[in-house]
Amino acid sequence: MRRKAAGFGLLGLGAVGLVLPFLQGFVFLALGTFVLRHQYFWAHRGMGWIEARWPETVRHVERMEGRMIAGTSARTRVLNERLRHLFGRR
Question: DSSP assignment, residue 89?
């Protein structure tokens, strides 16, 4: 649910950015599409177009996403261990 909210929020910023000169609308639209690519067919199809146009950029963003997910998982494990130790649960 948080991923969908983030994706649609980025799409909203992208739409606003197409009108306002100080926001890069296309960047936010691309990021929103990237976030929603596994939930919606239209986003997956849009990512195909973006990847055909900028393949190295998409690979770079996918690597960053993988590192962020791995880092979050590691921090979650450490936090769970500390909570178990603090509350005496094994």
Answer: -
Domain span holding position 74: 2-87
* pTM attached to this predicted model: 0.60
Q: Do the beta carbons of residue 17 and residue 23 sit within 8 Å?
A: yes
Element (H, E) at 40: none
* Ramachandran assignment for 88, one of left (phi > 0), alpha (psi -120 to 50 degrees), beta (any other): left
Instruction: Please report the pLDDT score of residue 90 as a whole number.
Output: 54
Q: How many domains does the chain have?
A: 1
Place of tokens 């000169």: 21
**How sure is the predictor about 27, in pLDDT bands with cuts at 50, 70 and 90?**
confident
